[in-house]
Amino acid sequence: MENLETPVLQVENLAISYEMRKSVVSAVRDVSFEIHRGEALGLVGESGCGKSTVAFGVVNFLDRNGRIDNGSILFQGQELRGQSQKELRLLRGDQISMVYQDPMAALNPSLRIGEQLREVLTVHRGLRKGKASKRSIEMLKQVYMPDPAAMMRRYPHQLSGGQQQRVVIAISLLNNPALLIMDEPTTALDVTVQASVLDLIAELRREFDTGILYISHNLGVIAYVSDKVGVMYTGEIVEQASVEDVFLRPMHPYTQALMRCVPKLGESKESSQLPPIRGRVPSPTNLPPGCIFEPRCDYARASCQQKHPRLRELAPDHSVRCHLAEEIIDTEWQPPEELIPELTRKVRQEGVGEPILQGEHVKTYYKQESRSLASLLGLGKKRYVKAVDDVSFEVAKGNTLGIVGESGCGKSTLAKTIVGLESPISGKLEFLGFDILPPVSKRDGGLVKELQMVFQNPESTLNPSFTVGRQIGRPLRRFTKGSRKEARKEVIRLLTAVRLDASYYTRLPRQLSGGEKQRVALARAVAGNPKLVVCDEPTSSLDVSVQAAILNLLLGLQEEYDITMLFISHDLSVIRFFSDYVAVMYLGKVCEIGPAEAIYSPPYHPYTEALLSAVPIPDPSADQKSIRLSGTVPSALNPPSGCPFHTRCPRKLGGVCEEQAPPRQIAAEGHYIYCHIPLEELSKMEAVVTLVKQGSTEGGS
Amino acid sequence: MLVKDCMTKHPLMVQPTMPILEAQRYMAENNIRHLPVVGKGKRLLGLVSRQTLLIQPAKLDSLNVWEISRFLSNLTIGDVLVKVKDIITIEKDEAIEEAARIMVENNIGCLPVLEESVVVGILTEINLLSKLMEMVGAQEPGLRVTVRMPNVKGEIAKLIGVIGEQGWGIPAFGGTPAPKDPTKWDAVVKIRDVSKEEVVAALEKVEGQKILDLRET
Questions:
Q1: For B9, which of A93, A126, A209 is closest by C-beta distance?
Q2: E strand or H helix at A79, and its extent?
Q3: Measured distance CA(A596)–CA(A603) in Å, rounded
Q4: What residues pair up with A312 in beta bridges, in sequence order?
Q5: A236 in Cβ contact with B37 (< 8 Å)
């Protein structure tokens, strides 16, 4: 149906540029879109593609060096460009609201929540304090804050991340805005919290009829929230259509490639491939003259280099910026030749090898300093944060154990304990038959060589003042006896193994992109030819296309060097793709452990079930159960008695969960569930996620 | 069904400082007839309709073309709006029939919807008509039956009972007193997935009621 109503926001041919020291960088070019009442438009794209610049441009919040070069921004039919700051401020306060990524940065840490909520009403509407308080409490109720009246008296730091974001959303809705701009509002939150915030956004949109501009890099989140989607690439919208069209019938090669390089929930490394997008995003100062995606496109022809494509409407309400979109058939895509060796993998030998790493009842506690006088004198009761509490596992040679859980569940502490950066207080930890309880400084050099680690943030783990070659060569110098020349040769071989070339040898970390840095970190980890590599969220700070490349690289290295891996991630799709075995952790304890495919199908531990139902799936046709956990992860300083999950468990049985630690139940060989609910009942659960097979959704166009 | 479920939320609004020439263009471009004028915090200051923008010649000092254009270019919405004390408004939690009554009795086409003097929406004839459309199920496919029945207690129950026995779904139901006959009542029922013959056969069994009109939609 044609919508004749005036859109809440209509952006036409928007172009925004930043003035840099040397040149003018055009960050956004020719962006047009419309948002109607109660409609959500998702802008998705990799980092640096101009998503946030668009959002800032709309309300003229650009940095001092940014300026709008061209185009019009009509809000409720009125031009925003060229309006004075005063008029804009009035609009922003009354009709446009914004929610940003980090709720803690949006809230004033020194004012109580109530004060900050009331302020909106007393300043903009001139309400009396008492009335403003009443309205604020009502609004907190609408965003499902527990005990809103008490919340009003709290400070932001006394709330959890999800609650803080709810407060920010409540503040932004107090004025009943016509347009809400949300820039990655759930990126800093855990999956379970993210899921409930997304539910809240969807509900409030219906209730308030607010138009939403939703910005995210996460395809799954965009699929869940939006009605329409714009895919951005280096400052341009390359594809724009309804959410179903973009996700089920993508037409632009970039959109198609983006969909392919995200692991779908339930896909494993045996059953699927993860083709990365080759090359990298061109720098905005040096854009190719023709199609910007041409250098990375699998379908590119000579003509693509010359003419810049327009955004064409190929199907009703489905626009694509590609010369060849009609000829491209997504389902017939084949990986280009140079990618094939990277994507073909040997089938993993069946049969479980010797366990190479074994942990039994490992406990790592952090001592909590208390400031009371008694404890100063050594008389106080000692308190511990039980970061890893009684965890048992084993990893067989050549396998990958994935560890997954919300933040604060002890994943990283477990990794650090194994590597020897933290000392466990009790338990048994054996690697290759050697005891590895002592910290790394007391371990034998040979043992250290066999056990390496890749960290989440390559930025902070590479020494900024050493060259890449020197950093990769360091483990070689320490662990092997070879001449300098040999070491250099070996480093260059490692660089090629991680798909970098010899020219990187003399570069410094600041000259590399995030993905390249992570490759260097990988090369450094495998340099000493270790038996076990612990990867702590190695891809979570990277874009999806880079993530795909790094995951493939890890798989390749694992095969080549026969490395056993411990892979930690909060992303359940990545874990499923990468791991043979998965351990689900909650509050320092393992609640389910077993072969990956068993974890992702019933019987589930109730916590695994909730986690799976919270994963945003980049497929609007997927059928996913909605199980939302209430409350937050309890403090590890004072964990609940009995089963640690009982405070939030939707399937709690009763007293037994509060009093007794859950027994270990054997669901299948090697698949253990720690829960009081009898196995027969757990087996009766339905699968959380049912993906509609590609074939059945086709042909609906 | 309350006003807030039926109104247009986030209506187009203007500031009193807007020149009327621009307001004229704004209303024409966006195809609207009523324009709430708001101040800070979306507080209602007044209302502009197309009529208010018609200038009475008496207000002009002279009919000199130059004088007129100078007069017009200096005129802002604040100068011509209908003041808030003269506007009839409604709260968002009122019932829509109450809103309809106010509009009919005062012969007006629009009501700004307020919540503590802040504009939260606007209710026009179009909003009410589209609600009427939904109430009689105009968008739903099915059979539309008009039945005339005595205006006494229990007649509707009889009709619904018969339809219920057949296991038919009713996507919409409405009714009015029969025109010029206070002893009779006309009910309009929408029935889904049935044929005309079935409906006639079933409804003929109801005593004292008569099918006035039967059509497919």
A1: A209
A2: strand A78-79
A3: 13
A4: A320
A5: no
**B160 and B180 inside one domain:** yes
Of the pLDDT bands very low, low, confident and very high (cuts 50, 70, 90), residue A484 is: confident
In this structure, which amino acid lies at residue A405? G
> Where in chain A are the domains?
9-110+169-244, 111-168, 250-343, 399-420+443-582, 604-690
Q: Identify the CATH assignment for A399-420+443-582 out of 3.90.180.10, 3.40.50.300, 2.60.40.2310, 3.30.470.20.
A: 3.40.50.300
In this structure, which topology does domain A9-110+169-244 adopt according to CATH? Rossmann fold (3.40.50)
CB-nearest partner of A77 from B12, B41, B43: B12
pLDDT band at A344 (very low <50, low <70, confident <90, very high): low
Cα A143 to its chain centre, rounded Å, is 24
Helix axes A191-208, A161-173, angle to 10 degrees: 10
Q: Which of A2, A78, A209, A212 to mutate to test the interface with B (most CBs of B within 10 A)?
A: A78
CATH code, domain with B123? 3.10.580.10
> Which residues are CB-contacts of A616 (< 8 A; sequence separation ≥ 6)?
A191, A194, A195, A198, A218, A220, A221, A223, A224
Boundary of a domain, candidates B132, B153, B188: B132
Give the three-class secondary structure for B84. Answer: helix
Q: In this complex, do A209 and B10 lie within 8 Å of one another by their Cβ atoms? A: yes
Q: Which of A87, A125, A209 sits opposite B118 (nearest CB)?
A: A125
Last-in-domain residue among B102, B132, B162: B132
Closest residue in chain A to residue B9, using alpha carbons only: A209
Contacts of B44 in chain A (CB under 8 A): none
The single-letter DSSP state of residue B57 is G
Inter-residue contact B182 to B151 (CB < 8 Å): yes
Residues of the domain holding B180: 136-216
User: What separation in angstroms does the CA of A192 have from each of A544, A612, B172?
Assistant: 21, 9, 40
- The alpha carbon of residue B100 is apart from the nearest alpha carbon of chain A, in Å, by 23
pLDDT per position as a tens digit, B17-45 = 888 888 989 999 898 888 999 988 888 99
Q: Is A269 exposed, middle or buried (0-12, 13-18, 19+ CB in 10 A)?
A: buried
Mean pLDDT computed over B183-195 = 88
Q: A482-512: b or e for each residue (b if 16 or more CB lie within 10 Å)?
A: eeeeebbebbbebbebbbbeeebbeeebeeb
Which two tokens mark A377? 């004198």
Confidence category of residue A160, pLDDT binned at 50, 70, 90: confident
pLDDT value, residue A1: 36
pLDDT band at A126 (very low <50, low <70, confident <90, very high): confident
Complex ipTM > 0.90: no
Q: Return the biggest CA–CA distance within chain A.
A: 80
Are residues B119 and B171 both part of a single domain? Answer: no
- B186 and B96 inside one domain: no
